[in-house]
Specification:
By secondary structure, this protein is mainly alpha-helical.
């Protein structure tokens, strides 16, 4: 193998070609690849942030819903307790009113019974007197003088 000037020109032209290709093609391609990697990394980190944010929002939503359910349940229980208390109070009032009305009616009936018994006793005495007078008149007629 011989080394002559052509070989030296060939090596120099190859080195110039590699330097030009590096400057013209490889560096821009490397920059494009680097930009793309950065873009992918940025998007991936943004996606992870959005995912973690959505997870925290979902947890917050679940907590709010659980709290709302608990509040609704306690409100419902309070309303039921108030309704039960009101119905018990109404039943008690109705029972008391019924008892008072019953006692008042009993007193009124006893009073009327006593009045009727006293009137019957008076009438019985009058009737007994009339009957006895009639019987006595039949057996012992009274003679009148003229």
């Amino acid at each position: 193998m011989e080394f002559n000037a052509t070989f030296l020109i060939l090596i120099i032209s190859f080195i110039i070609f590699v330097l030009l290709m590096n400057k013209i093609l490889y560096k821009p391609l490397e920059n494009i690849v680097q930009e793309r990697e950065n873009f992918i990394k940025d998007n991936y980190s943004n996606a992870q942030k959005a995912d973690s944010k959505s997870d925290s929002l979902l947890k917050q939503k679940a907590e709010i819903l659980a709290e709302a359910k608990l509040n609704a349940k306690s409100s419902m229980n309070k309303a039921l307790e108030e309704a039960n208390r009101a119905s018990i109070e109404m039943l008690k009032n109705a029972k008391d009113e019924y008892t008072q009305n019953t006692e008042a009616k009993k007193q009124q009936l006893y009073s009327e019974k006593s009045d009727i018994e006293s009137k019957m006793n008076e009438n019985t005495e009058i009737i007994a007197q009339l009957v006895s007078d009639k019987l006595l008149q039949k057996h012992f007629p009274i003679r009148r003088n003229k």
